[in-house]
Amino acid sequence: MKRLLALLVPVVLSVAACHTTEAGGGTKPAQEAAAPRAHVGTDPGGVGMGTALAPRAGNQLAAFAGGCFWGVEDLFRQVPGVKATAVGYTGGHTVSPTYPEVCKHTTGHAEAVLVEFAPTEVSYDKLLEIFFKNHDPTTFHRQGPDVGSQYRSEVFTFSEEQAAAARAIIAKEQARLGKPVVTQVSPIPAFYKAEEYHQQYDEKSGTHSCAIGLPT
pLDDT tens across 81-98, in order? Predict the structure, then answer.
């Protein structure tokens, strides 16, 4: 497995889902290397290729798109109360998309992170707060150096209660920032799990790979 991973990482870097923090654009500096988080699972909702999602008893699901999904997933895997995460594609029209297809910006899909969490340990409102604090919701189809519809800011919801919470924090953020927030709020359609080399990428590579642009 280690040998396979060693071979995969250089390949993935050559077709990176996001730019490194060497790029400009007001992004945050790299942090310390990511450590494996064995206590956080990798199968939220029994995620598959567009199959029905169902959280474990007592848990709930959430989904967020905020640029390169490597960094967004790494962010949520550090949140106490998050039980499992996976990266994938959603919000588009192509069935069972591949990463190269999504990169062409013709599928309509966003790079997204599916999160399974325990609401008794972390609230959905708290997840929203973390999400908005860690990306720029004012840039249309862009996060830092990453440009294109797959990098859009969007909250995919599993209930009207989640949608209402998302709209409320958008209004709050727009008032705080004093400029339009372009984050979309949509009921989640089919979610397609991304290729295995994208899953928990920062933990596999031992880096915080993606620069996350923040609003000023």
Answer: 999 999 999 999 999 999
Q: Among residues 18, 68, 103, 210, which one is catalytic?
A: 68
Nearest to 17 by CA among 138, 182, 145: 145
Q: Is 215 part of any domain? A: no
Domain total of the chain: 1
Q: Is 210 a catalytic residue?
A: no
Please report whether residue 170 resides in a domain: yes
pTM of the model as a whole = 0.83
Residue 125 inside a domain? The answer is: yes
Residue 127: domain span: 2-17+38-205
